[in-house]
Amino acid sequence: MSDLSSGYKKPKSVRIKEEDKELLLHCCDICGKEFRKKNHLTDHKRTHTGEKPFLCGVCGKCFGRKYGLNSHMRTHTGEKPYSCEFCSKSFSQNGHLKDHMRIHIGKKPFRCRLCSKTFMRKNCLKCHMVTHTGEKPHRCELCGKSYGVRANLTAHMKTHTGNRPFTCLTCKRSFITKSALNCHMSTHSGEKPFSCPTCGKSFREKTFMTVHMKTHTEEKPFLCPMCGKRFSQRRYLTKHKRGHTDDKPYTCEVCAKGFCQSCDLRSHMRTHTGEKPFPCLTCGKSFGKKSNLNIHMRTHTGERPFPCLTCGKCFRERTSLNRHMETQHP
Q1: What is the pLDDT of residue 7?
Q2: Where is the C2H2-type domain (predicted)?
């Protein structure tokens, strides 16, 4: 027995290093997607089952991941623990801070493989890809309208429910999306951080500046298939196409007047409510439409941007120029 025991070697136990454990992939048995960590697989599988076990104790909203609940809770507490080291702007989520940092460093890591246009965020690239494919897989079950991006469908659904959860603390006006509220807030602050490099005109949002830049390049990529007319913006094409079909999907519930665009309906509704959310910061006079405020501001600045090409006289409004042309240069 002693001879046998002396020649016997106990097998070594195999220990997997922690760094090697990270390389062991956990596979989803539904879609085949692989994850390095088992808890990531568990979170992922809830996207298939629809399970949302993490409940917000304040508003009752449910989440599939605990991280999602923690981030959501900051909308109630107002906590913004992630601060930008360049401009001190704070964010509720680290991912939002990372997106913001790309504005300072100019990094656009997500490139479209079809046109080579680059984007700061992956979801922006996904939204852009729809412009190439024309795909609109997200359909409203109430009216049948389709969208290329789920977030746009979510925002659209609120037009049916009337839910406008984002309220301006200054004028109490409510909005469907937070981005719409942020854009509106600049009407109170007057902030216009995006300047056109060609003419110096400033804008509240970068998208507004991008659209404006096409007035310099005369780029009109959106073609009407019915009459061949081209437009610089998709929304102008959409509005134009309704002129062919006489489609006015936005109806006033007070007087039943129809409109081609939702913004026209919102502006019209103020004639019933008397709301005037656009105040002049110089004299305090308020207006129901932003365009009327812009015209009014020219009485303070003296700006007359509409010149008569025949006699050189300038006007504050295009309608005044048109009236002048009819009476003085028929």
Answers
A1: 46
A2: 26-53, 54-81, 82-109, 110-137, 138-165, 166-193, 194-221, 222-249, 250-277, 278-305, 306-330
